Input
Amino acid sequence: MISMDNEELSRYSRHIMLPEIGLSGQQKLLAAKVLIIGAGGLGSPAALYLAASGVGEISIADFDIVELNNLQRQIAHDEDQIGHAKVSSCSNRMGKINSAIHIKPLNNNLSGEQLDSQVALADIVVDCTDNLTTRFEINKACVKNKKRLVSAAAIRWEGQISVYECGSPDSPCYHCFYGNSVDIDQSCSQNGIVSPVVGVLGSMQAIEVIKLIVDTGDKLMGRVLLFDALSMQWESMQLPKNPACPVCGNKKD
Ligand SMILES: [Zn+2]
Output
């Protein structure tokens, strides 16, 4: 177990006083390795909260550059960062919040072998990307490496979040549910997004990551939570495993 000095005990005191986290839970957070893919609208709050929470090693991947229109919702970045790599902007901000953790910026469109090797190094993968092709690829790498995947998406006034125990025989994967949904590949660049909706979903991803690491509460495993900000309603749905899923299904016939 990782020992904490007085500064760390003070920094994380609001976690440590919670019976569900406590000293041992905070030690688990400090020992955890999380890979966040995407430093945009979802990735900003997820990365900042996980850094503040003391997740000991956070790799953050993005290949994009900060643009003016990102600042409406991607709160890790600021006006001084326009034209700079999102991943440096986000990791600098994380480091200013918590200099005691290890932050690995990956200025890279993770795919293929690189994606596979980064997923293999992580305990939990957080999908904060905004396109279906990348999401399918991340899911595949998580199933192959048997990693837990915390996935969210947001568009207009709506968002959704789910957690997959990828590679576990009974758990569905992202592909089980979305495999045939080619038409959901919509991005907020074409459809718009209400700024704090991504904040809510990205923050919820951070909450689920903490619950998974500490192993507490009722996790979103095998469920999807749908959020409608206009009606201010949440809806929860079970995600069945698809036995014929080409990614996680039983391929023996
Ligand atoms: Zn599947």
